[in-house]
Amino acid sequence: MRFHEKSESRLYVGNLDLKITEASLIKMFSPYGKIVSEDFLWHTRGPKRGEPRGFAFIQFSTKEEAKLAKEKMHGRLAIGRPLVVRLASEKYMEEAAQNSSKGVGDTNKTGPAGSTSGLHMSRSAKIAAIKNKLKALEEENQIAKKQKQADNTSSNSSSSSLDHPSCIR
């Protein structure tokens, strides 16, 4: 399998609840095709060492299987959280496009004076990755809020007396 083919059949799965295990992730995605490999990412250092990072990569045997899994699983709730499922190549292309849209001046603003340009690029790439992650988390949060609001409006037709401000003392 060539690299390009491999990247087209590899999925990024994000917004995973920390209770989701590798086995449950494989079980969720296996109906859509043969899973060749999965990379469940864990924190390797710091106070969260050994805890899941909240995302994984799943490699299917064909790009068709990966696309089917993406279509069926993106936005699906898993332990109350909507999954974010993309082709891994789309995620990298998206980050590269956002990084390339940054001005040249942006790299000069980062890093200590006198450091090499390689350090600048590395640091600016890290900053861009953090910004991308924050943006993705904000989008996921908005989806979850809208879903929660929809659930609340359909299930709560009357409010309790505790919600009334005059009852709070």
UniProtKB/TrEMBL annotation:
- RRM domain boundaries: 9-90
Q: Where is the composition biased (Polar residues)?
A: 97-119
Q: Which UniProt keywords apply?
A: RNA-binding
Keyword RNA-binding applies: yes
Q: Which InterPro entries match?
A: Nucleotide-bd_a/b_plait_sf (IPR012677), RBD_domain_sf (IPR035979), RBM18_RRM (IPR039157), RRM_dom (IPR000504)
Output the SMART domains linked to this UniProt entry.
Answer: RRM
Q: Where is this region: Disordered?
A: 95-122, 139-169
GO MF, any single term? RNA binding
What Pfam families does the record point to? RRM_1
What PANTHER family does the record point to? HETEROGENEOUS NUCLEAR RIBONUCLEOPROTEIN (PTHR21245)
- Protein name from the UniProt record: Probable RNA-binding protein 18
